[in-house]
Amino acid sequence: MSDEPRALDGTELVTTSVGDPYPEDSTPSEREFEPLKLPLSRRCSRAGPSRGVAIGVMPARALHDLAATATVMEALKFQRLRRRHRLHAPQGRLLLSPRDLRAYRRIPPVDRLLVLVLDHTCRGAWDWTNALMPYLRWAYFERAGVGIVQVGANSAPDSLRAEQTLVRSVLTRGLGSRLDAAPGRATPLAHGLELALRTLRHGLHHGREGILDALLVVVTDGRGNVPRDASRGAPLERPVAAAGVEDALAVAQEIGRLQRLRSVVVDPQPAWYPDLPGSLAAALQAELVAGRSDAF
Question: In terms of pTM, does the model score above 0.85?
Fold first, then answer.
């Protein structure tokens, strides 16, 4: 008997392959499997179990990192009952049980860091969300801390200085408004890179709490028009010429010498001075990627 499928009236049916009928089984996830579960620390060999910010207490499983106040408060609940069964227990002494012990519940220390240097004056009508999404996704899955350096934002109190914000994760409220800030009139790129350099140095060389892996993403056309001294408070001398660009390249070379750092320059592909993003990427020892498809 033939194994080919046939209709009830005996005619032969024609079958075609439609591929995998259940594509959802093989589609990669766009979010974490357990987003509310605290991850295991990746620095167990470097730091003790008491590292991280305390966010509460829990029953102790060992004799380290004990919360003394919480332990005493738990033991006080049962003092009258315990003294009924321990008639010869010394008065004025706290009767403890192993079940009273409480330890601190801690958030694992942040050991990944994403630093974004965003030049708002190069943005125009370009929506750079798609260009930034791979790096924001990396920070989300790695539970990395995020530092945002805004260069040339219209909301800056001083147009000659960049602004910096440090948050614990990409899920922090208000992060999107900083990505969408309107452009201002000046581009203190050198100062923005200097702020990023300070953040990276502090994170990568801060003892046992140091960052294990850092990612720097710079979105700019490279046309910095504010010298570094002017951002530090010195009088702005005109004409500025190429001083702002040269200062930015000098700071970029310092960043390029840092260890455990991967850098990326997102090129908005400007019509004027299109070679500046490449020069900045070379100074940073960074990867240069195209940032927009609607370039001139």
Answer: no
